[in-house]
Design goal:
homodimer, 398 residues, alpha/beta, Aspartate Aminotransferase, domain 1, Aspartate Aminotransferase, domain 2, 2 domains, seven-stranded mixed β-sheet, three-stranded antiparallel β-sheet, 12 strands, 42% helix, globular
């Protein structure tokens, strides 16, 4: 019999996916260039040419038995070492290869980290607004995801609500900076205060509280914004990374998990992740992709388009009177809708072929997300449509 | 706190892995060419050149945003369609793309299939000798793996023991043909009898019993051996495949699960597998690898070396008086040890730098496995050493 737990999951369709499918279908009717699709966080810039070169070089000049052979289940040793070296060089850390576990993107890293440091029934806290896939990542481990309400003034942490929810039952805290969907980067002050509070509570409760830091947008940070490395602030940090956004390789499912060398059980967490992987039959990310990213470990695609797009959109939103916090990174912006019901707002926008995602699933009703990983030319055209939409529907004039 | 379930898994080290690590270490001492390493099932032949060409062609001539973009979580639609077409063409089946779910090799396929068709507490039956990783694949779903004892005369199914164990609690039966570790291919007679029995028990118990058919060695079948396609015999079949062995790409983690179109819930099993994937953060196999294998879907590497090696080893084993069933496929052979304790036998062989794997973990004590995916030249040299070993240790003369 089909497992009823999973069968039930089929009911809850993702709003993002529905909107994205709508946009694709609508594009077939009126031409995709006329659909202003802000639904999906799919990088719009090509991967770094050096990545393509690295792949071709491996395919043309290496022994195929070696490059396509089984990877050790924790990742290829030289690749793990090159990740550790890169983090140490860039952030003054002291990782060794044994602290690195290669994963299927940040998704795989977060899901493994949570499974590793929780037991069924434990609580995991995250902060609204949050990436909706955190629900299945946490729920399928048997742990319970609880959402700390947003601080909508700044989208930094709402410490009052957080401290209240940070009970003895909490085994892990899951953060995402730079943040999807708000675009906000946690400040040094926020992370310091978070780390201090966690240390205090660890002492009070006499057990570890792990900080799982989901950082796929680490390299997309805008001018003048400081993006501190979370692992520097708190020993029990597990850093989750993906090359999806930095190298524009979302489909290649490559990322890693880095365990702070000072964490409790630091030397066995990666090994335990290997055991978790065994149980799901997913033994390692693809060998050739591991080898290729390790050759371009400190490089990125040309990510400048995201900041260009952000500035255009932010300025227009402000001009139109929206309440919006200026993003410090990512390719998301998170304005307040012009009516309380963000779903209704986004439905109206859809009539203008403007695809916006209401933020109910992100734990922040009344707001909406725009994923501006699209061509700048299209952003410019969309803003005229946005202006027309809010004028006609809400009487707003620039 | 680290999850104690996974922590405990660290105790049970894999014998295969230990022996393989020993072989590598020993190779550094005396030269790897002098270690006769039959431990690991890692393909020894290069991938098909057409696969390399397909990869380079994609990298050089396709839009990088398209080829490295997110795959839908069930797999790229055109790739799923090409898998269905290939199976239909080769085996007279009627799969559609919706019946195909792209996976991380056969391991991912088996783990997803079991999770999909069982609930915690259900029993899953498999047949000795069996691939030891079936334990974590099944145990981590909460189902219970039970092992039907081997029929050591032929390594076909021991139907007497099977029927006795096939109680109302059994939700799935997991088979592997061609078989690791025995090298045996299930005959038409075996599969027919298996299917008849399952149908009878489904009727008796009034619930589905799924047949999960693990087939990574499907393309490695030797002259004169007929390897029937299991899905033709039984409606509730989920076929699990990997390109690891056929294309020599074990590290690239690419395979699929194919749901018989006549199975119960056939149209939603792949979708449910997508939900399972979400929960483990592993959304899809790498895009570029999916695209490349679909371009060479009916091709294989040159796999002829495995049959050459098998014949050399089989003839020598017979000459030396071993009890052994002639393999019909794979790159494994599974003789009976020359003393009851196969571990002791293999420890003695190790003194001759002959790395054999005792079969206790495969559920068949007293036997050992040789993975002959190594160069033929090395096989030839190893047989002289094998002869010397059994003469000196067991007084056997050819």
């Amino acid at each position: 019999m089909i497992n009823p737990t999973y069968k039930q999951m089929l009911q809850g369709k993702s709003v993002i996916r529905e909107l994205s499918e709508y946009a694709t279908a609508r594009g077939k009717e009126i031409g995709y260039e006329n659909v202003f699709d802000y639904s999906l966080g799919n990088p719009s810039v090509p991967c770094a040419p050096s990545f393509t070169d690295a792949m071709i070089d491996l395919l043309e000049h290496s022994d195929p038995v070696a490059i396509h052979g089984y990877s050790p289940s924790l990742g290829i040793q030289s690749v793990r070492a090159s990740v550790a070296d890169s983090l140490n060089r860039r952030f003054g850390m002291h990782y060794e290869a044994k602290h690195i576990f290669m994963t299927s993107g940040a998704a795989g890293a977060v899901a493994h980290a949570i499974r590793c440091v929780t037991q069924p029934g434990d609580e995991v806290l995250t902060f609204a607004p949050f990436f909706p896939e955190y629900r299945p990542y946490v729920n399928q481990t048997g742990a319970v995801l609880k959402i700390v309400p947003a601080n909508t003034d700044t989208f930094q942490i709402n410490f009052e609500a957080f401290e209240e929810m940070l009970t003895d039952k909490v085994a892990a805290v899951l953060i995402n900076t730079p943040n999807n969907p708000s675009g906000i980067v946690y400040s040094t002050e926020t992370i310091t205060r978070l780390a201090d509070l966690l240390r205090r509570k660890q002492e009070e409760y006499r057990h570890d509280i792990f900080l799982v830091s989901d950082e796929p947008y680490r390299e997309i940070v805008f001018a003048g914004v400081d993006a501190p490395f979370v692992g520097q602030f708190y020993d029990n940090t597990i850093t989750c990374y993906s090359f999806s956004k930095s190298l524009s390789l979302p489909g290649e499912r490559i990322g890693y998990l880095a365990v702070n060398p000072n964490a409790t059980d630091a030397d066995i967490i990666a090994v335990i992740c290997g055991q978790i992987s065994r149980g799901i039959g997913h033994n390692c990310p693809p060998s050739i992709i591991q080898l290729a990213v390790s050759k371009v470990i400190d490089q990125t695609s040309d990510l400048s388009v995201y900041e260009t797009n952000m500035n255009l959109i932010y300025d227009k939103l402000i001009e139109l009177g929206f309440t919006v916090v200026k993003p410090g990174g990512t390719f998301y912006i998170f304005p307040k809708a012009l009516e309380d019901d963000a779903k209704a707002f986004c439905m109206k926008a859809k009539q203008y072929d403007l695809i916006l995602v209401p933020a109910d699933d992100f734990g922040c009703p009344g707001y909406f997300r725009m994923a501006y990983c699209i061509d700048t030319e299209k952003v410019v055209r969309s803003l005229t449509v946005l202006e027309q939409f809010v004028r006609e529907e809400y009487g707003v004039k620039a």
